[in-house]
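explain this chain.
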Amino acid sequence: MTGCASLPSQVDRPVSTALANPMETRLGQLVQARAARAGTRNDSGFALVGNAELAFTSRMTLIKAAQKTLDIQYYAIFADDTTERMFEALREAAGRGVRIRILLDDFNTTGKNAQVLKLAFEKNFELRLFNPLPGGRASMMLRILSNLKDVARMQRRMHNKIFVADNAVAITGGRNLGETYFGQSEGTNFIDIDVLAAGRIARDLSRSFDQYWNNPLAYPVQSLMTEEEIKALKPQPVAADRGAPYSAMQPVANAAGAPPVKAVAADAPNALPDSTDLSLLTWTWAPSVLLVDKPSKIARDADDVAGTQETAVDGLLQLMSQAKADLLIVSPYFVPGDMMMGQFAELRRRGVRVRVLTNSLASNDAPAAHVGYARYRKALLAMGVELYEMHAEQEGTVRNFGSGIGSTGGSKSGSRASLHAKVFVMDGRLLVVGSMNLDLRSKLQNSEVAVIIRNRALSQEATQMIEPAMANGAYHVELVNEKLVWRAPQGSGLDDSTNEPDASLTLKLLLKLFGPLAPDEML
């Protein structure tokens, strides 16, 4: 029955655009004032977001500071306690007249996560789904089964992550929205890096958002489902009274002169603070360029994209080819393919040092992606590329990078770590933070976005976040007598290994059985 479903052909899709004049808002005025105080001719300012707590509080602060508009674009928004706090802040913003547009890829909007779509029916909210899939939303498995007739389209997803307040300040990077991205999961938490961006680059991100928002592949939720249908997917149980998650204790200092916000009660189930003072961050004004795929990439098949359309990953590879001395790559899913392998070989021939931090088999939340990486591992090491694989058990090892597991970054104690950041540092002077991995899925299947920043101080700051994680939180993989050896992280007390450390027998069997079979572009 679900296989017979189809998308509506006549869709009312009103055109709208970002706020025309950010200077009408306090955020816009503060950005201009900060640039004037910096005495810079650069039109964009940046601050790195290297831990889970700041990733959450900075978004909450922008919600509370916004006066006119909030534009939010994500691959996935997961329904949990952490995002519910964010939704409540969004409802408060909508109540004071802020227009909120949410653009969400449709793939993960099933079961409990479909409840996010109810926001589409609230005042001052607009919510559209990009490249929606016809059929049921009761479970992810049913959704996949009902779309097997169109696997190629199901594979092409909007992977962009953009969060813009008043067209003045934005956040972009690797994170989706959910507790695992903000260090609050009892199981696995993602290690990630975002960047706060102000000024002209925020307006560039808004223009990108508008292109996707007004694209024919963006369907208003109301054209696909009713509010009653969404509610029926996941009946809401009456929970026992755990006490109010917020207390009316002391207002928390916040940026941009926004109304005071409530502090979080000490016994709240989600202990992340409710806001932060963004003015206390170190803002760096620097030249920058936005790399972003066109929405049409999702509408075309992989062969067509590869032959006729330059993608964000293509732009990144062109940039990497210009490296003169050092290239530091953080990519959780790293499947280089033949063309990238040729580029790495050329870089090494010129004496460029290439270091890659990626997931181990045990830390990878998508083991199939590790299958693709593993087939290139020996060849990469043979040409002199340095490989580091994230250690899944991170208590006490990762400090200022990503989820802050084992530190003050807001993560649950005892949780596991999975690398999710997509960061590139070239020659200590160029920094790239974005949504794309170095794999053929990012190159051919998904749409992606990234910011390129030319600044030595920011590049050094990112490097200082990443290098300790490589030394203390990752295995250094070496090739010894044609065999792989995983050198244990410094100070971990672990032994070196010769066979996929920390991974279960099931995962190791998966690697051996499917490694030779799966095509790179599907991983």
The chain has two domains: 23-234+243-280, 288-522. Residues 331 and 422 are 5 Å apart (CA to CA). Residues 238-269, 396-400, 402-411 have pLDDT under 50 and may be disordered. DSSP finds 15 helices and 20 strands in the chain.
